[in-house]
Specification:
The complex is a heterodimer of chains A (about 290) and B (about 230). With about 290 residues, chain A is mainly alpha-helical. Chain A contains 10 helices and no strands. Chain B is flat. In chain B, about 50% of the residues are buried. Classes of the chains: A mainly alpha (about 290), B mainly alpha (about 230).
Chain lengths: ~290, ~230
C-alpha cells in the first residue's frame, strides 16, 4: 500500500487535506449506507432476530456439525498439500531435466492439468474409481477430492519450482558447474534449495487455494465444512449457517495469506531468488510466477 | 459395437456443445461484471481517501478468502430460497443470473489485485514527472499512471480470466446446467467409456484455456512498457 501512495500522490497541502477529509466523510457515509442497506434488507425479512442465529452458538452445532466438518476439510487440505508438493517437486524437476523427452512429457502433463477445472477432475475420479470398485465407497469422496486437488495444485507448484529456478541468478548454476558438479547435482544441491526458499510465500498462497477448493467436495458428497453447514442450516436457518462457515474459512485463509505476505518480505533478504507472490484467483488460476 | 461407434453414439445423445455454450456465456457476463467492479475497487484502493481504501481492502480480503462454492450456495440457498429474492422471473435464468453475480463478486477481488499489481509496475519517476508538469491526482492518474498500469496488468488480468473460465464449472452448485453437470450425467449413464468422456470435456477446456494463456503472454509482451 505504502508504495502506491508515493506513486500516485504527493504529500498534501491544507486544501488537499481539507478535500481529502470531505471525501473521507462521504466515503464513510457511502460505506455505512451500503452496510445499512444490507442489514435493513436482512432485518426486513426477519433474518437478524436472535432466534435465527442462536442455533449456531450451541454446543450441538459445533460438536456435531462445524468441528467435524472443519476436521474433514483440514484433513483433505493437509493431505492434498503434502501430495501436491511432492507432485510439484517431481514434475518441476522433470521440466528442468536435460533430457528433452522427459521435459516434453512433464510439460504436457503439467499444462494439461493446469487447464482442466478442478471440479471436472474431482467428478471424474469420484465416478471412475467408484466403477473400478477398488476402494470402499466411504473413502471415495475423500480420495477424489485429494486426487483432484493434487493434480491441479501439484502442476501449479511444478510451475512455481520451474520459474523459481529460472529466476535465480545465472552465476549460481555456472559456479556449480565450474566446481565440477553434474547438471542434476547443481539442480538438487544449489538451485532447488534457494528456489524453494524463494517460492515459499507463493507456495503458502497456493495452500490457501487448496483449502478453499476443498469446499468443492460438497458437490461429490465429501462431508466437509460447507456440507456440515448446509445440513445444520437445513434443520435451522440456511443463510446464517452458511455465513458462519464462510467466516471460518475467511479467518483461516486470512491467517495463511498474512503469513505468506510477511514471509515474502522476511525471506527477500535471505535468498537470491524472487519471493514476490503472483496475483491469481482461487479455483484454477494458472499462477505464472514469471 | 466398436469403441468409436459407441463413443459417437453417446456424444450424439447429449448436447455437449450446448453445455459449453452456457459456460462461455457465464464467462462473458461474469468477466464484464467482475472487470467493472474490480476497476472500481482498484480505484478505491489507490485513492488518497482512507475510508474508501479501507472499504476496498476489506472487500478484497473477505471475498478472496471465501470459497466460490460457498458463494454459490449462499446465492441459491440463502438469497433465493430463504430471502426469496429473485433475479429473473424465468426459473433457469434465475439460477444463471445468481451464478453470474457470485462469479462477478468473487473474481472482482482478483481483478482489483491484478490492476493494483499493474500500478505497482509504474516507476515512481513517472508520477513525479506528472506532478512536476502540474498535473493533479485525476489527470495524472488518467493520462500517465493508468495507461501504463493497464499494460502492466495484462498478465494477471489474463490469468484471472482463465481462472474465471474454469470456475464457471462451479456454477453447477447453483443448479446451472453447464458442462461439469452434463459430464457427471453422461458418465453415470455410460460407465463403460468414463475416460473417453472425461477426456472429451477436459480437452474442450484445454482448447479454450491454452489459447487464452498464449494470447495473454503475446499481448503482455506486445504492450509491455519498455523500460
Amino acid at each position: 500500500m505504502k508504495a502506491n501512495l508515493n506513486v500516485l500522490f504527493d504529500a498534501q497541502g491544507p486544501r488537499g487535506r481539507r478535500l481529502t477529509l470531505i471525501f473521507n466523510v462521504v466515503g464513510l457515509l457511502l460505506a455505512a449506507a451500503v452496510i445499512w442497506w444490507l442489514l435493513a434488507t436482512l432485518a426486513d425479512r426477519g433474518q437478524l432476530s436472535w432466534s435465527r442465529w442462536s442455533f449456531a452458538f450451541t454446543a450441538n452445532a459445533w460438536e456435531n456439525f462445524y468441528l467435524p466438518g472443519l476436521v474433514s476439510t483440514l484433513k483433505a487440505a493437509l493431505v492434498s498439500i503434502v501430495t501436491s508438493v511432492a507432485f510439484g517437486l517431481l514434475f518441476g524437476m522433470g521440466r528442468l531435466a536435460p533430457n528433452a523427452l522427459v521435459r516434453a512429457v512433464c510439460t504436457v502433463i503439467v499444462e494439461f492439468f493446469r487447464a482442466v477445472p478442478v471440479l471436472l477432475m474431482m467428478i471424474f475420479f469420484w465416478l471412475w474409481i467408484g466403477f473400478l470398485d477398488v476402494v470402499p465407497p466411504s473413502d471415495l469422496p475423500f480420495l477424489a477430492v485429494v486426487l483432484g486437488l493434487t493434480f491441479y495444485n501439484g502442476s501449479v507448484i511444478a510451475e512455481l519450482v520451474r520459474s523459481g529456478v529460472h529466476q535465480l541468478p545465472k552465476g549460481q548454476s555456472e559456479a556449480g558447474l565450474a566446481v565440477g558438479l553434474t547438471h542434476g547435482q547443481v539442480l538438487r544441491s544449489i538451485q532447488l534449495p534457494q528456489a524453494l526458499v524463494a517460492m515459499l510465500p507463493s507456495m503458502l498462497s497456493q495452500f490457501v487455494v487448496i483449502l478453499k477448493d476443498t469446499a468443492l467436495g460438497i458437490i461429490i458428497t465429501y462431508p466437509e465444512l460447507l456440507d456440515s453447514a448446509r445440513r445444520l442450516g437445513s434443520a435451522n436457518s440456511m443463510l446464517q449457517s452458511l455465513l458462519i462457515a464462510a467466516v471460518v474459512f475467511i479467518v483461516i485463509n486470512f491467517v495463511l495469506t498474512s503469513a505468506a505476505n510477511w514471509l515474502s518480505g522476511y525471506l527477500s533478504s535471505r535468498t537470491s531468488g524472487r519471493t514476490k507472490i503472483p496475483v491469481g484467483p482461487g479455483v484454477g488460476a494458472p499462477e505464472k510466477a514469471a | 459395437m466398436s469403441f468409436l461407434d459407441r463413443y459417437a453414439s453417446v456424444l450424439s445423445q447429449y448436447d455437449v456443445l450446448g453445455a459449453f455454450w452456457v459456460n462461455i456465456q457465464l464467462t462473458f457476463w461474469a468477466a464484464i461484471g467482475s472487470f467493472v467492479l474490480g476497476c472500481l475497487l482498484a480505484l478505491m484502493r489507490i485513492s488518497p481517501i482512507a475510508s474508501l481504501r479501507g472499504f476496498g481492502a476489506t472487500y478484497v480480503q473477505l471475498l478472496r478468502n471465501t470459497p466460490l462454492t460457498i458463494l454459490m450456495f449462499i446465492a441459491v440457498l440463502g438469497v433465493w430460497t430463504q430471502l426469496q429474492i429473485k433475479l429473473s422471473g424465468d426459473f433457469q435464468q434465475n439460477f444463471f443470473n445468481f451464478a453470474v453475480v457470485a462469479l462477478s463478486l468473487y473474481h472482482a477481488a482478483f481483478v482489483c489485485e491484478a490492476i493494483r499489481s499493474g500500478v505497482n509496475t509504474v516507476p515512481v519517476g513517472q508520477a513525479e514527472a506528472a506532478r512536476a508538469i502540474g498535473l493533479s491526482f485525476l489527470p495524472s492518474a488518467r493520462l500517465i499512471i493508468f495507461p501504463q498500469a493497464l499494460r502492466g496488468s495484462i498478465t494477471p488480468l489474463g490469468n484471472t480470466l482463465i481462472a474465471l473460465t474454469k470456475n464457471t464449472t462451479v456454477a453447477t452448485a447453483a443448479s446451472v446446467a453447464e458442462a461439469s453437470g452434463l459430464m457427471k450425467t453422461m458418465i453415470e449413464f455410460n460407465s463403460d467409456i468414463v475416460i473417453a468422456i472425461f477426456l472429451t470435456f477436459a480437452m474442450c477446456f484445454v482448447v479454450i484455456v491454452i489459447p487464452m494463456g498464449l494470447i495473454t503472454t503475446w499481448a503482455s509482451r506486445k504492450w509491455a512498457v519498455k523500460r
